[in-house]
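Progress against Task 2.4 (sequence-to-structure conversion) is shown through the following example record, which the project officer requested during the mid-term review.
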Amino acid sequence: MSSTADVIIIGSGIIGSATAYYLAKKGVSVTVLDAADAIGSGGSSRNGGGVRQSGRDPRELPMVMWGIKNIWPTLAEELDTNVEYTQKGNLRLGKTEAHLKTLQKLTDSAVACGLDVRMIDGDEVRAINPYLSNEVIGASWCPTDGHANPLTTTLGYYKKARELGARFITGEPVLQIKKLKGKARVAVTPDGTFEADKILVAAGYDTRALTLPLGVDIPMRKKKSECLVTEAEPPMFAQMLGTAEADFYGHQTTHGSFVFGGSTGLEPFGLMAEAVPGSTSLSAPCTCRGIMKYFPALSDAKIVRTWAGWTDASADGIPVIDEADGVPGLYIACGFSGHGFGIGPAAAYSLAEVMTGGEPPVDLAPFRCTRFKAKI
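Structure tokens generated for the chain above:
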């Protein structure tokens, strides 16, 4: 097999599919290659669906704030897909004074960036969401945060990109990226080669193995993330929930089920050997016990399914969104550290601008891959 295009994108998650769409809108020919047999089968289908600004690193805030203002409100219409975007706020919960100090620090840094977020006490928390327990003594409250459906959002971008001529090939792992005349131009797969003027690697943690032979190392680690979904419940609340320690997060979907994620504390211990991450009988009960302390009204809710996936956690907790240093034609989008879904549309829009010689809507300097280089 041999194929040429203006741009090759490696990875069909929210970043890859959305970038393909925004490039195709500009008349750019795009081929998307993915090792998996299904679109968005990595982190883009294995997350809690948060579209939030609160609790983020200040370096990420301008981009996600731009996306929430300019992309998310009309995304369903643009993609002709119900992405289930709900903008009813985010409560980031605290149960101890230490939690409140953490939340206050995050709030102060977000306010300095212009975000509408404030600290509230336990009574105000329960006035917004009466189902939360009395253990919650305070929270940060961001009324412009929300949530959406990762599956339908990624699928919507994929569908629209294809309508505009983008080509998606699944079950096609990229083994190597080769240079021609000093530029990254060729993606080698078991079935042949694909050639393009520019190559974007948006393959999560697997990005590192593809860029390292070209002299570009993005320091990342695999972090296991797990989610669960309950049976449908009567409508209870529309906010996104999170915690100061980021050990629990979730929301109620438009059809009534709850989607929750969380950490167990067991993730670093022996689980990295798994080729494909799976849920275990230990993890879901740990998450559920944490949820019930915050949200006792769900104590009897039945779990329908659980799932797990790898998060590509960068060394400093924010992504790389950049043309690779020293490798013309190679672009990288990885290391989203569990924050990739909500920021994904804005990141993809920015990449499409940069790759076509345009001006991104926000400064991408904080996301340069050169930030990891040793300072001499």
